[in-house]
UniProtKB/TrEMBL annotation:
GO MF term list: metalloendopeptidase activity; zinc ion binding
GO biological process terms held by the UniProt record: proteolysis
Catalytic residue list: E89
EC id: 3.4.24.-
Domain Peptidase M12A: start-end pairs: 3-220
Binding locations of Zn(2+): H88, H92, H98
Cofactor needs: Zn(2+)
Protein name: Metalloendopeptidase
UniProtKB keywords: Hydrolase, Metal-binding, Metalloprotease, Protease, Zinc
InterPro entries in alphabetical order: MetalloPept_cat_dom_sf, Peptidase_M12A, Peptidase_Metallo
Cofactor binding description: Binds 1 zinc ion per subunit.
Length: 222
């Protein structure tokens, strides 16, 4: 499941207004991600009317990112420049941190620093203080907030391993078994090193449990 950092501001009642932007180059994918969240969780992204706190989507060739984790207050920018991982950015909007930033990460995945650029996020070992709630579930390598296992690799490694990235259409497979070679990965799942990890375009069962329980219990309507 995706983890919530302590002190994150949640959206009251789980209602997240957004500004439609049909001219966005990846708008159909953003809508698909919104529908995935709306259909499977208590969080609801709704088209904005006159709300002052709302999400708007841009595409400025700087990658995929959210201006903050959780509700920023006022206009909340989300930039989408790729045809994958729109759902991942919505996870940041509602307050989720990366799965690999959980404090218990090292019990489940091994970070392969020899293959990672020195300035990359992976090399900072930046584990975050997550919410200690009774609904916390164990590490979920299937989570849509989990990074893919070649994230942050250096160019030499990337050239060798990029061809092993697995996609189906425009969606990334969550886990695929394509062999035990750990060369070129930025991380390896300790419980089964044969598994390849990608960022899913769908919510896992534990993602759904976590989001629903946190928003039902910690995000009352204003």
């Amino acid at each position: 499941m995706g983890a919530f950092q302590k002190g994150t501001i949640l959206w009251p009642g789980g209602i997240v207004p957004y500004q439609p932007n049909a001219t966005h180059p990846f708008w159909p994918l953003i809508i698909r991600a919104i529908n995935e969240m709306n259909d499977k969780t208590v969080v609801k992204f709704i088209e904005r009317t006159n709300q002052t706190d709302y999400v708007y989507f841009t595409s400025d060739n700087t990658g995929n990112w959210s201006i903050s984790v959780g509700k920023a207050g006022g206009p909340h920018q989300v930039n989408i420049d790729k045809n994958v991982r729109s759902l991942h950015e919505l996870g940041h909007v509602i307050g989720l941190i990366h799965e690999h930033q959980r404090q218990d990460r090292d019990n489940f995945i091994e970070i392969k620093r020899d293959f990672i650029d020195s300035g990359n996020e992976w090399n900072k070992n930046n584990l975050l203080d997550t919410m200690e709630i009774e609904y916390e579930t164990e590490y979920d390598v299937h989570s849509f907030m989990q990074y893919w296992d070649t994230a942050g690799v250096n160019n030499e490694t990337k050239n060798k391993e990029l061809a092993k990235r697995i996609f189906t259409g425009i969606a990334t497979i969550g886990i695929s078994e394509i062999g035990p070679n750990v060369e070129g990965r930025s991380m390896v799942y300790k419980r089964d090193k044969n598994l390849r990890i990608s960022t899913s375009e769908f919510l896992s069962p534990l993602d759904i449990v976590c989001i629903n329980n946190v928003y039902r219990n910690y995000a009352p309507a204003s």
